[in-house]
Structures are given as C-alpha cells and as structure tokens.
Amino acid sequence: MRCLWLLMLCLSASAARAQQTASAMSTSSAAPTAHASIMRTYALRLRPGDDLRQQLQAFTEQHQIRAGALVTSVGSLTTTTLRLANQPGPTVYRGHFEIVSLVGTLSTNGSHLHLSVADSTGRTLGGHLLDGCIVYTTVELVIGVLDELDFRRETDPVSTYKELSIYPRPATPTRSSKPKK
Question: Which part of the chain is the PPC domain (predicted)?
Fold first, then answer.
C-alpha cells in the first residue's frame, strides 16, 4: 500500500512538472500577431544612372504605398552605399556589383531596406540601403502592395529604435450610387 501511495505521489509530481514545462513553453513560443492582406504587385525597371533608394522612395510616394514589400530584385550597380551593421554612417564602395538580394518594407511612413551585392570576385557585402546606390545597367523590381495594412515606424521600448508597427488600414468610404434628395 505504501509503495502504491509513493508511486502515485511520484507520478503526480512528474505530471505537474510536465504541465508547468508545457505551460512555460507555450507562453514563450506564442506566435506574434499577424495581419492578413491581399497583395497586388508592380513590376518596374530602373535605368543606368538612377539612384536605387531615391527611385524606390519616389515610387512609394507617387503610388501612396502605406504598406509594401520588395518581392524580388536583380540588377547591377556602379556605386553601392550601405550602412553596415552597428555603424553610425555610410560606407561607399565603387566598382561593378551584382545585386544578390534586396529585401525590406516600403511605406510613406518610413521604409526599411537591406541590400546585398557581390563584386567581380564573388565577395558579398550587405547592409542598410542608403541613397547613393547608382544603377549600372539595370535594376528589375517587383514590389508588392498590401492595401489593407498601414506600416508605421514607432520607437520600440526595448531596442529604442524606430521599428515596424502594423495596423489594419481603415476602409475607404465608398460613394453611394443613390442620388441625394
């Protein structure tokens, strides 16, 4: 009887520990809030001499993009200007570079873009895209727009940087087809 009681006590303690562990894991691995939106896309090509970042910003302003993302990009640059990780200012590279990655978010409220390029030896550099990235032959872009969302840059209390905040975009009022009396 005493063995049975001891066995039940051990099983009970083991089950309680397993439940606490599962509970801790479920709260620490909770999925972040996600917002859904249908995406429409634009395809465009930049020409030799264009400034990549300035053209992306002009396009964003022209189309009043509140929430967008770069879907894909390829092309080449003669000048690459990046803010490297944990550096306060720009670093400029001159030569011929292939774009191997251009990713990020676009918004009239502030964009956040990262660029990686490779030189003629295959050496790859990457960082924050800055003004001064000059197109060599072409840059081909596909931009996705999420009309149901609004991207904003707000100071994060932990990082202290302006980070992405995502809001649902208010529905645009539609005109009534009925004439007013």
Answer: 36-167
